[in-house]
């Protein structure tokens, strides 16, 4: 029997590595499956958040474009005559002006309502669906504008039967109003733009009703059960006409997930929009990402299995070769010869390594400057929408003021025309300062250091990022009470550090009930300390000690490079950047600079 089993021993010895390869491959498949699905979910959440923020910026830009119209319309001389005196001639002139303004701005309709709720003038006057003569006293936006001055109300038009947001503004004082001017904003173009992005987007009002969406099935559905009070308010105001509000085809779940009527799961991203109580919800289907992850797992598992099998076969082959004494001796001699040659080349290799390290240090310095430039360009993308709004507002106002100035000149009112022209000059100077600040911020080759006034640095930073705080409704406190000291730094790179810290603070307080960010300056001998604090959730204790380390970040879509670049810039200035406890309860950072 022993003689019969002797030929099988080599095969049994070789089977052990093959079984190990099988077990390791199965373990790798399980670990890769867990890792791939986690990465897929993280990627989906990052994509959903990025798309939701892009779509919110598009919506905010559209709203800001139309919110300026009611303010400008107050300047029209014919508006007061048509509302107070009921002048037919003034109403006809106002109809033409409103029609031209609606065509230029793309507003669906602009109309003026007297204090009794009757429409006296409209941009669609003379058309079959004209608003002139109709009474809108029952509409909440009319009543709210008379009592509160302004109102923004979404409803289904009872004349056009098209949904839209009604922007209303009172004309005249609160104790004796002349009436209300209304601009209607429709969102069909925005919904079409949203439809070009992956997934589905839902915009809900303060009652949870889907009012704008890229999915026609979800329009005028509810994401949550309506309270009896909310349902009564909707029915009394005829907000959605005769449309029956049914439950939405998507059911939100804890943990940032949603399930549709067919049982498919979606990753959910929610962002606030510049309307009280409204939310923008973006859903990305998870099935395609999981399919791609599973396909990658199968491919990676196959590669790992093949690699382990190759290693096992190589080990078997080497073991078999080692049993051959002659071949083992030759392999040993070859190894000794190879090691001898390596020792002889040690000096040459050390010389080459030293030279390579010098070149690597030079490449590192150049790469660090390129990374700082890329960080500035990356920051520019997040502030572009705010800067565009800072420019669009004056441009729209310039056009309206110029038209009014022409009207005043034809009516022999040069004083009013001169006032409008002076305002136009101020607006053009503001546009010039914004453009110059952006060009300075992205300009390459700003390596110099010297005396820099903190006042100028803070003003330039506010031009770049100030509108983002105003659009998000975040209170930003900056130093006041006299001029600030002069420090040793480079203006553009110091602005880059401040923009990075303020953007992080703005992201941190995005979901807080009363968001605040504070900047303070304190003088300590020859040092100047500038602190940036917020009332956000604060730094994650797990990553706080390494927050300045590259690729360490608390943001789901962050790279973790901004703070590291900022600390390097401060060290080049001979200063310091570090974290401190925030007096507002969130995160705090301190910048220490030398006095010039």
From TrEMBL:
It catalyses: ATP + protein L-histidine = ADP + protein N-phospho-L-histidine. This is histidine kinase. It is a multi-pass membrane protein. CDD domains: HisKA. It is found in: Cell membrane. The chain crosses the membrane at residues 296-317. Gene3D superfamilies: 1.10.287.130, 6.10.250.3020, Histidine kinase-like ATPase, C-terminal domain, PAS domain. SUPFAM superfamilies: ATPase domain of HSP90 chaperone/DNA topoisomerase II/histidine kinase, Homodimeric domain of signal transducing histidine kinase, Sensory domain-like. GO terms for cellular component: plasma membrane. It comes from Sphingomonas pseudosanguinis. It comes from the Bacteria. Its EC number is 2.7.13.3. Residues 386-596 form the Histidine kinase domain. Its main location: membrane. InterPro entries: dCache_1, HATPase_C_sf, HATPase_dom, His_kinase_dom, HisK_dim/P_dom, HisK_dim/P_sf, Sensor-like_sf, Sig_transdc_His_kin-like_C. Keywords: ATP-binding, Cell membrane, Coiled coil, Kinase, Membrane, Nucleotide-binding, Phosphoprotein, Transferase, Transmembrane, Transmembrane helix, Two-component regulatory system. PANTHER family: C4-DICARBOXYLATE TRANSPORT SENSOR PROTEIN DCTB (PTHR43065:SF46), SENSOR HISTIDINE KINASE (PTHR43065). One of its GO terms (molecular function) is ATP binding. Residues 329-377 form a coiled coil.
